[in-house]
Automatic annotation (TrEMBL):
Its main location: plastid. One of its GO terms (biological process) is translation. Gene3D superfamilies: Ribosomal protein L33. This is Large ribosomal subunit protein bL33c. It comes from Arabidopsis lyrata subsp. lyrata (Lyre-leaved rock-cress).
Length: 66
């Protein structure tokens, strides 16, 4: 039995402030989290507030393409 697209997909969340600061070379790195989301419940891009160890504060992390 062939399966179609999975309902739960693995996504990568990336810190938005580290990405902006990376252009200026102020940040030591970019914070990334790996998590899962339900494709039927959240079809749009996911964004969560997570702790960034490079910024030393809670920032918004956006879903990025693989």
């Amino acid at each position: 039995m062939a399966k179609g697209k999975d309902v739960r997909v693995r996504i990568i969340l990336e810190c938005t402030s580290c990405v902006r600061n990376d252009i200026k070379k102020e940040s030591a790195g970019i914070s990334r989290y790996i998590t899962q989301k339900n494709r039927h419940n959240t079809p749009s891009r996911l964004e969560l507030r997570k702790f960034c160890p490079y910024c030393y504060k809670h920032t918004i992390h956006w879903e990025i393409k693989k």
